[in-house]
Design brief:
The protein has helices at residues 2-28, 60-68, 71-80, 86-107, 114-138, 141-167; strands spanning 43-44, 53-54, 57-58, 112-113. It is mainly alpha-helical. A hairpin with a 2-residue loop joins β2 and β3 (57-58).
Length: 176
Amino acid sequence: MKDNNKLNKLTYALFVVYLIALFWILLFKLGVHFSYMENERSINLIPFSEPVVLNGKIDRGEMIMNVLIFVPLGIYAGILFRTWIAWKKILLFFSISLIIEGFQFILAVGAFDITDIINNTSGGIIGLMIYLGIEKVFKNSVKAQKFVITIATIGTASMILFLFLLKTNKLWITYQ
C-alpha cells in the first residue's frame, strides 16, 4: 500500500508537469512568436474548415499534432481517475481543450477552433484506449501504472532536458 501511494504521488507529479507543458506549448508557443501569431482574435465553429486548410490543402500535420499532444492526458486519466465513468473522462478532455482554446482567443495567441477541440478530445480518448490496452496486457493496474510511469518519467526528463538545451542554445537548432 505504501508503494502504491508513492506511485500515485509520482503519477500526479508527472501529470502536473504534463499539464504545465501542455499549457505552455499551446498557449505560449514555447515563448516563441511565430509569424502566424498576428494578435488577431478569430473563432471557427465549423469543424474541419478554413483554419485547417493551408495553401488549398488540409493541414494534416497540425491536426495530427493536436491529437498526439492530448494522448498523454488520456493515459494519465486512465490511471488517476480510474473510478470515473468514460463520459466523465471524455468531458475532462473536452473541458481542458475548451479552456485552452478559450485562452488562445483571450490572449490572442491563436484562434478558437472547434476542429482543435475535436482533435484534442480525440487524442485524449486515444490515450485512454492505449492505457486500457496496456492494463489488459499487464492484467494488473498497478503493473500497468508502473510501466506507464517508467516511460513517462523518461519522457518527461528527456523533454525537460531538450527544452533546457533548446532555451540555452546548446542544440543544433536555435530557439528565439
